[in-house]
Amino acid sequence: MFTFGSLLILRRKYLRKQLLARTMKFSVLQQGPDESRLGNLSELWKDSEKIGDFQTPLCLLYSRAGSIPHLTNEVLQYLNKPIIPVVFPLPSIVGLIEPAKKYGHGIGKFVGLEEYPVYISVQDPVEPAPSGYNDKSGISVWSTGGRVRLNVDQFMAAVESFRPAFYQVLCDSDTPQDSSRKRLTHSVERSLVHLDKCLEKHLRSDKLKNTAVFGSVVGGFSPDARKKSAMQTVLRPVDGFVIDGFHWNNSDLGLLNTFEQMLPILKETVTLLPSDKPRVLHGVLPPDMILEAIKCGIDLFDASYAFAVTERGGALMVPVSIGNSPGNILIKDGLKPLNSHFKYEIDLKNEIYREDFSPILEGCACYTCRQFSKAYIHHLLNTSEMLAFVLLMLHNLHNFLSFFSIIRELISKGELDKLQF
Questions:
Q1: Strands 314-316, 345-347: parallel, antiparallel or unpaired by DSSP?
Q2: Which of 67, 316, 333, 419 could anchor a disulfide with 399, C-beta 3.0 to 4.6 Å?
Q3: Of 119, 125, 133, 227, which is closest to residue 172 (Cα–Cα)?
Q4: What is the spatial distance between Cα 141 and Cα 131, in angstroms, rounded to a whole number?
Q5: In terms of Cα–Cα distance, which of 242, 244, 143, 144 is closest to 187?
Q6: Is 395 among the annotated ligand-binding positions?
Q7: What share of the chain is helix, strand, coil (3-state, %, to 5)?
Q8: Could you tell me the strand order of the sheet in which 25-31 lies?
Q9: Would you say 296 is a known binding-site residue?
Q10: Which residues of the chain have pLDDT under 50?
């Protein structure tokens, strides 16, 4: 770990580079009655081109192996939503490091998503990462071909090949709920060492001069470890923070059991972070948990929840308008279970939809709801047609992103308390 003097030198290098570079900016436009806030993320760059402003709280698109799951780039245009950043989890693109390097124009253009700002996360919020494979010299990620171990040099070489608009620095977030004090200490210390080394290489890289760096706040479910990680990470010249290491492992039941225990730790952690930098929380988070995290001050999430619902043949029924619009769920009344074990979706494989010729959600403006019925998608699911998942993904992404639009609108009006589950 760097000494205090070394950190001052690192910060001076960072400030000098900021004078020459064009990197991401964040400002708070409006503060809610709790810690929720309406923010503006600006000056994201891809190569030498500036991408427009993005208001937060914001849901980033989720990708796998360089594409939005189930959607070709042409079909993605049917989403009919503004361009937003895309999360590229490192495990699913680690095999593209050398091809992207040879291509020389970044991962976004390489996979045909050049219009979208790229954000690289260390782990995949959907796929579980086996525990016990990190050490002081490197971090393990799990691709379709098995375990890939990356040290700082390899990781930063990958980042230079991918040229993202912003990225999460290499970290050790392997902290299950039952982690020992020793494991938590290693998580915090190793993450800080990796951060310092990555920052040194980042500041020397001409290819990353317009790229923003996000440090990771780790420490599992230990308030003390979280506090140490947050206070030390804040001292480093980072552009934002990823609250990592809750180790949910893609388990709906595990998430429900741990979220209530995580929430007070999340609240306390966020109070230690500066208000002028964005905060990210990854995970397959349903709407009620997202709302609670926003009230803690989280700004950026990912759309992995919409993907997870699609994978099990579900259709999201999250509020997409304020007031009594036809077919939409009144915000003040909250959401009710809709013929499903899960609270915010319907299971279109269920036989009750066999002759239901209404759209998934009356009044929904997505392509799927405008063109197809529940009965048709039910038929596609039960005959194992790929089109079922294409149509569900279009609807679920549209519905989930619209939910975030509602949240931003309510914060701007000072009425977020109307949104209750």
A1: antiparallel
A2: 316
A3: 133
A4: 11
A5: 244
A6: yes
A7: 40, 15, 40
A8: 25-31, 37-42, 54-56
A9: no
A10: 19-20, 250-251, 253, 325-341
Alpha-carbon gap, residue 296 to 291, rounded angstroms = 9
Assigned token pair, 55: 């208001």
**φ and ψ at 55, to 5 degrees?**
-85, 145
| Phi-psi category of residue 93: left, alpha or beta, with phi > 0 → left and psi -120 to 50 → alpha | alpha
Q: What is the pLDDT of residues 8-55, one digit of tens each?
A: 555 555 555 554 455 789 999 999 889 999 999 998 887 667 787 999
The β-bridge relationship of strands 118-121 and 345-347 is unpaired
Burial 142-177 (b: 16+ CB within 10 A, else e): bbeeeebebbbebbbbbbbbbbbbbbbbbbbbbbbe
Judge whether 59 is annotated as a binding position: no
265-295 residue pLDDT tens: 999 999 999 999 999 999 989 898 999 999 9
How many angstroms separate the Cα of 341 from the Cα of each of 141, 287, 310, 345?
Answer: 32, 15, 15, 9
Written as one letter, the residue type at 413 is K
Tokens of 180: 């020992």
| Distances in whole angstroms, Cα of residue 73 to Cα of each of 90, 147, 226, 418 | 20, 29, 39, 36
